[in-house]
């Protein structure tokens, strides 16, 4: 059905402009019932979209600034791969102070979701010590030596508390800063994993010391290599993961 599904929100709904930063989805500003909103069209399963939209509704109720799913005319939170969400104003994070505020919001996310179930089809970094596949991760496509390096980095996270992680908070398109709040956008890579993976932020906003920073930094680089393999960014990230 594609973007024709937008009529399930409003017969007169219109697409306005494409938004940059999306890889797996088409993302546009849209006008629905006279309101500016964001539409995201992709190929994720209904179970996957139910997990994400349930999470966003929960976080919104708990006071986090996240895009809230807008229901269709018959009350559904997604339809035919399309999700429509509230538009979040603001600017990307720029200063160390901005990034410290981002870290505070991420810690609140982690605190609120310690018992959250795993996203359907996903695996955490420590699951991948034994599993080969998880949504966009396919370790069989990577060189064996690279897989060994990634797994050695992830093994250092074993036994740590898990929760929902945003999954891509350093992307400048995913943060919107105002004087009043920090908004987290693009939850397409969110899943259950070790919290510290979210806190490898510019300016060491996660406030790790020299000893503790190395563990999440190596594990985060390994995750980005595995989830994006084998584009140039993935190869650059794998180059940062120490040989075994």
Automatic annotation (TrEMBL):
Top-level lineage group: Bacteria
InterPro entries xrefs: Kinase-like_dom_sf (IPR011009)
Official protein name in the record: Uncharacterized protein
Organism: Microlunatus phosphovorus (strain ATCC 700054 / DSM 10555 / JCM 9379 / NBRC 101784 / NCIMB 13414 / VKM Ac-1990 / NM-1)
């Amino acid at each position: 059905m594609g973007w024709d599904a937008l009529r399930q929100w409003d017969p007169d709904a219109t697409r306005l402009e494409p938004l940059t930063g999306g890889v797996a989805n088409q993302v546009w500003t849209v006008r629905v019932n006279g309101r500016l909103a964001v539409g995201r069209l992709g190929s994720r399963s209904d179970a996957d979209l139910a997990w994400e939209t349930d999470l966003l509704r929960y976080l919104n109720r708990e006071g986090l600034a996240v895009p809230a799913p807008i229901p269709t005319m018959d009350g559904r939170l997604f339809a035919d791969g399309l999700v429509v969400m509230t538009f979040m104003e603001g600017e990307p994070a720029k200063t160390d102070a901005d990034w410290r505020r981002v870290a505070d919001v991420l810690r609140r996310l982690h605190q609120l979701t310690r018992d959250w179930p795993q996203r359907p089809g996903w695996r955490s970094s420590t699951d991948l010590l034994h599993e080969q596949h998880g949504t966009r991760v396919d370790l069989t496509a990577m060189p064996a030596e690279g897989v060994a390096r990634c797994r050695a980095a992830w093994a250092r996270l074993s036994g740590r508390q898990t929760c929902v992680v945003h999954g891509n908070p350093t992307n400048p398109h995913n943060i919107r800063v105002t004087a009043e709040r920090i908004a987290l956008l693009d939850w397409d890579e969110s899943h259950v994993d070790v919290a510290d993976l979210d806190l490898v932020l510019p300016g060491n906003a996660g406030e790790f010391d020299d000893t503790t920073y190395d563990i999440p930094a190596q594990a985060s680089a390994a995750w980005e290599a595995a989830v994006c393999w084998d584009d140039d960014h993935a190869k650059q990230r794998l180059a940062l993961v120490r040989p075994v």
